[in-house]
Amino acid sequence: MDKQNTTATEPVRVLIVEDDMVDRMACRRAFRAAGAYALLEAETGQQGLELALSGQVDCVLLDYNLPDLTGLEFLASLAKLAGGEGAAPPVMMLTGADSATVAAEAMRRGARDYLVKDTDGRYLELLPAGIERMLREQRLRLDKQQAETRFRTLVEQIHAVSYVAGTGACGALQYVSPQIRMLLGYTPEEWLADSGLLRARMHPDDRDAAWAEVCACRSAARALRVEYRLLPRGGGELWVRDQADPVPGPNGPVLQGILIDISASKAAEQALRQSQDELRRLGAHQERIKEEERKRIAQEIHDELGGLLTGIRAYILVAQERAVAAGSTPEPLLADTADLVQSAIETVRRVITDLRPSVLDQLGVWAALEWYADQVALRAGLRCVCRIDAQAAALELDADRSTMLFRIVQEALTNVVRHAQATQATIDVACEPGALRLTVSDNGKGIAAEGLLSRESWGILGMHERSRSFGGQLAITGGPDGTVLMLRLPLEENQDDG
């Protein structure tokens, strides 16, 4: 029978190791009166060891004075031969009335309980209850060991380093799983023995901030969430996520945590960031090419088509004047043709302006914004105000940043006209420490949250990408009082007012 699974219907097998026959008989009588007990007896320590290790007993009742061994020697031999805690049956020591020191030493060496053999034999009445209590504690102890073993096995199978750290004054590590060897090349014993090893193996660039956070969380017994680089024993570096949570411990809260190798995800994140940067640079390059192409096309339209239409209109006007001078009535179709040519000239001018307003290249971005605000007011019947403070007006932005600012304002006001149902829009430009702040606001119905989050809002996405190309931060907020677009653009040293 397994000593962990004794039941009320199966007798408890008690081994009595006692050389005095009278005492053995007294013990037999006490157990017989108590009920379901099966007794085995040994007169010497060696016989007792053989029976105790045979697997046929649930517990041992041990006398201290034996002919070949003392009780302490018996306990030492039993622990050695059994080969581990829980492998041997629990032992209750019987000591003399004046042997408190012996009893304490017996408990230290592995005895689970003891009874004092009084001269009146009252200890015999306590034997059954003492045995039951000792076996109950044994079962609880074994259940705890099995639970801990299962938990440790589970922990040591995951692909992360598990650890337990104390709290208060940057508590020391209490446990670290074997995965530390695979992660960093150190044994658990080495990692636990050197309290400064974690800090020493942190990357120099991450050490101060990461270690301060680790110490703060351990000292305050609060959750830890931090990422940093570690330097393995064999060289190189790896990224880890260190996360821990406080849990109750026998002597107060402890932090149970894990170290997860996130090097692969960090590498993927870096590759993604690099790809995004490259795409952003490509997008900015394409925008420059597009702006140059717009400028070239606008110039060609102005020089070629605009000049051609102006010439045609001039010829028509000359023909009309000659007819009048000859005393005849000008052909009505000539007047109609002249009007059509004038309309075409105005259309060409509008197309040229939409492609690349000449005021942007000739007078700069601030004049271009004021001019564009007037154009929007004329075309859309919208009151459009442009305010540029003196410090901002004194700045001379380079051509690329000027174009970026103009296109963002152009897109913002186009959205106001198309979607906002507003009666007024305002452009504000001001300087703040190290940056330029551009704000475009309206009093319309306000943009909905789904409009801001939609990946199909290409105009909004385009404004974000344009601003990011120059390190700008663009935010759009909407509400019942309208929509506000704010761009914060860092200023370079060569763009200070001069």
Automatic annotation (TrEMBL):
CDD domains attached to this UniProt entry: HATPase_UhpB-NarQ-NarX-like, PAS, REC
InterPro entries documented for this protein: CheY-like_superfamily, HATPase_C_sf, HATPase_dom, His_kinase_dom, PAS, PAS-assoc_C, PAS-like_dom_sf, PAS_fold_3
Residues of the PAS domain: 147-208
Positions carrying 4-aspartylphosphate: D63
Domain PAC residue range list: 224-274
Signal peptide (UniProt feature, chain positions): none
Histidine kinase domain location: 296-493
Keyword line: Kinase, Phosphoprotein, Transferase, Two-component regulatory system
Transmembrane segments: none
Molecular function GO terms recorded: phosphorelay sensor kinase activity; protein dimerization activity
Domain of life: Bacteria
Domain Response regulatory intervals: 13-132
Entry-linked Pfam families: HATPase_c, HisKA_3, PAS_3, Response_reg
A single Gene Ontology CC term: membrane
Protein name per the record: Response regulator
